[in-house]
Specification:
five-stranded parallel beta sheet, 318 residues, 57% helix, Rossmann fold
Length: 318
């Protein structure tokens, strides 16, 4: 920021209580000082092709003055008309007021059926996707957070940006999710569209899913203390005795056996409970897989794409 919250409050107080002219002088000095620090500390590595977007809360003098300095350097600067306040109103309108503009198709399946990897392969077959778990920085399972999640408003801004890229005449594929992904709540217009959307379900044997999970969570599998700590969080759901057994399996390196037990005793029962709560939902088709290696995921992705594009009468690339 070219003015911190404290500096902005100080300038505003001077503007109201003493003199608008004095406030502008002090504000200009602070902006110049802070702009110099930003350029020296953060912007020296950008070349002449960089095109920054500068905004403040209302799109006024703070962003305008900083944008002017950057433009004098030679960068092609844009400012956000009306500031973040105006932009936020637009995001809220898109995600809370209006109907979601694209028709979702949900990629469904129990934990360990490689939905996220299949989703990532769909664009090569001409299918529109939005990776909600990626935007939320969270793997949708008890063991699966990536780390710090964005703020709710940050998630909504990213989702609105992805939504604007969509062709509304074509379906968009999303992973089937509950209304929350970790600490993030899905906006009502999107979740309402998802609740009524057709689903394509991936099915695979427990052994294949367990093998896939150990590969997908290789970072966690390699860090036994972190894995044990994550398992300990399941005590309130599974009881001390069972979680103690799982922790011992983790320490012994019996990762596929551990994954199989998590599937049968934890993930699948919760999946069935969630589906019962949601009520009967039509599945467009079920795609069966015996294994979930890379070649299988390519085959599954193409099969999903064929079902999606058949709806729009569009040939699958490749």
């Amino acid at each position: 920021p070219v003015l911190s919250d404290e500096e902005r409050a100080r300038v505003g107080t001077i503007y109201v209580q003493k003199s608008p002219f004095l406030a502008r002088k002090i504000g200009a000095a602070l902006v110049a000082r802070n702009a110099a620090a930003h350029i020296e500390e953060h912007l020296m590595g950008y070349d002449g092709g960089w095109q920054p977007l500068v905004y403040c809360w209302r799109g006024g003098q703070r962003s305008g003055s900083f944008a002017s300095i950057l433009a004098q350097i030679g960068w092609r600067v844009e400012t956000l008309e009306g500031g973040y306040q105006s932009y936020r109103r637009l995001v809220v309108d898109r995600l809370y007021q209006a109907a979601y503009p694209a028709r979702p198709v949900l990629l469904d399946g129990n934990t360990g059926t490689a939905k996220t990897e299949v989703l990532a392969r769909l664009p090569q077959y001409g299918v529109q996707v939005i990776d909600l778990e990626g935007l939320a920085n969270h793997r949708g399972s008890a063991l699966g957070d990536f780390g710090d999640q964005p703020a709710q408003k940050g998630f909504e801004s990213a989702l609105a940006a992805e939504t604007e890229k969509l062709d509304p005449s074509r379906p968009v594929v999303l992973e089937a999710e509950s209304s929350k992904i970790g600490s993030i709540t899905l906006p009502p217009s999107l979740f309402a569209a998802m609740k009524g959307a057709p689903r394509i379900e991936i099915k695979a044997p427990v052994a294949a899913r367990a093998r896939y999970l150990t590969r997908a969570y290789a970072d966690l599998v390699a860090d036994t203390p972190a894995l044990v700590a994550r398992l300990e969080k399941l005590v309130h759901l599974q009881g001390r005795e069972k979680v103690t057994d799982w922790c011992e399996m983790a320490r012994l390196g019996a990762h596929e056996a551990l994954a199989a037990e998590l599937i049968t005793d934890h993930y699948d029962p919760r999946y069935r409970k969630a589906r019962a709560r949601d009520g009967d939902m039509a599945k467009d088709q079920v795609i069966e897989a015996t294994t979930l290696e890379d070649a299988d995921l390519d085959r599954i992705a193409r099969a999903v794409a064929e079902r999606i594009t058949a709806r729009a009468d569009v040939p699958v690339p490749g």
